[in-house]
Structures are given as structure tokens and as C-alpha cells.
Amino acid sequence: MSVFGVVGLAALVLLWVMPDLNTEPYKLIRRMFFVALVVDLCLPTYYTIQIASLPWISARRVATFPLIVLFAVT
Which of 74, 62, 72 is nearest to 35 (CA)? Predict the structure, then answer.
């Protein structure tokens, strides 16, 4: 049930941001893409933090998440 809440919250944030976004952050997307690419290619998958009842938080996921958010906003 919480998955639907997360998706609904993301949809509300995107609807709230959409009318006011006049410029698309192409430079930031390009930089974040190269940061995510370097992290994905250089860091092994086992660099993670494990917290009880949560999925593994890896360095790759931490580097890729901002890029996903920028794509979602644009």
C-alpha cells in the first residue's frame, strides 16, 4: 500500500513543478549523467549500507537517484 503512496506523492510533486518549469536543466542533466556513468563503471556493487527492513543503499543508487529525479522533472 505504501508503494501507491510513493507513486502518488511523486505524481503530485511533478504536477506541482510542471507549470513553473520554464528552463530545462540540460547542463545539470549532462553532468549528473557523467557522474552516474563514472560511478557505475568504477565502483563495485558491494559498496553498500544495509539498514534493517530497507533495501541495500549502494553508492551506485545514490549517484543515479538524482539523475532519475532530473529526468522525471523534465
Answer: 62
Q: Is the dihedral of CA 6, 62, 14, 17 positive or negative?
A: positive
Q: What is the pLDDT of residues 33-49, one digit of tens each?
A: 999 999 989 988 888 88
In the chain, where are the structural domains located?
22-73
Count other C-beta atoms under 10 Å from residue 27's C-beta. Answer: 8
Report the sign of the C-alpha dihedral through residues 31, 64, 13, 73, in that order: positive
Spatial CA neighbour of 31 closest among 70, 74, 59, 60: 70
pTM above 0.70, yes or no: no
